[in-house]
Write a structure and sequence with these properties.
The chain folds into 2 domains: 51 residues, Arc Repressor Mutant, subunit A (Orthogonal Bundle); 145 residues, Tetracycline Repressor, domain 2 (Orthogonal Bundle). It has 9 helices and no strands. The radius of gyration is 19 Å and the shape is elongated. 27% of the residues are buried. By secondary structure, it is mainly alpha-helical.
């Protein structure tokens, strides 16, 4: 027997869903630009809501930040799963990087070590890492990705390209950002690349940033 169709949210439920979306979008803008020290009032103001509406949904700033990280990781995982359906290994990896940067998946990296991490956050982080490992492995096997590029190199690249200097951006900012993204992707391709300096990033160091506040 088939499941009955989901009923659209109405009234207060629809308003609560809309407000939650506004809060999370505003929080990502504010905290990505200003870090965890940004006041919650700035989030409410950017969302166009009263501070009381925000606190009715999230009991504390930490709870809001934790939820924000979870949503960002869920979006990144969905982007990776979508990319893995692409047959061409390079196209798949490039699609994921572009999508993750568009979602600003790495913009919350400065929060590392400033909030308590939850089991759900670690679960999603490791799921995302496994999917990125698959994308990178496929690209390596196809000879499309530089052999000395690791999954963590790609993760750090996404972090850097996800950040913006301010909340508000201009068309020129977006133009420059897209050019830098294209340059970065071209730079990790396998064609005649010079060896990378230094050593590959450490997974332990990458994850330890988030453990500092536990």
């Amino acid at each position: 027997m088939s499941e009955p169709p989901l009923r659209p949210l109405r009234g207060r439920q629809a308003e609560a869903e809309r407000n939650d979306r506004l809060v999370l979008e505003a929080a990502r803008d504010v905290f990505a630009a200003s870090g965890a020290g940004a006041p919650v009032g700035a989030v409410a103001a950017r969302a166009g809501l009263g501070i009381g509406s925000l606190y009715r949904r999230y009991g504390s700033k930490t709870e809001l930040l934790q939820r924000l990280c979870i949503v960002a990781m869920e979006e990144s995982i969905a982007a990776a799963e979508e990319a893995l359906r692409e047959k061409d290994p390079w196209a798949a990896l490039a699609h994921y990087v572009r999508r993750a940067v568009a979602l600003r998946s790495g913009a919350l990296a400065p929060l590392a070590g400033t909030i308590e991490t939850t089991p759900r956050m670690w679960e999603l982080a490791r799921q995302g890492r496994r999917l990125l490992d698959k994308l990178v492995t496929r690209a390596h096997r196809a000879g499309a990705l530089r052999s000395d590029i690791t999954a963590l190199d790609i993760a750090y690249l996404i972090e850097q390209l996800s950040r913006r200097r301010s909340i508000e951006t201009t068309d020129e900012d977006d133009n420059v950002h897209q050019r830098l993204l294209a340059i970065a992707l071209d730079g990790v391709r396998a064609r005649g690349a010079a060896p990378l300096p230094g050593v590959a990033p450490s997974a332990t160091r990458y994850e330890s940033r988030w453990g500092a506040a536990t």
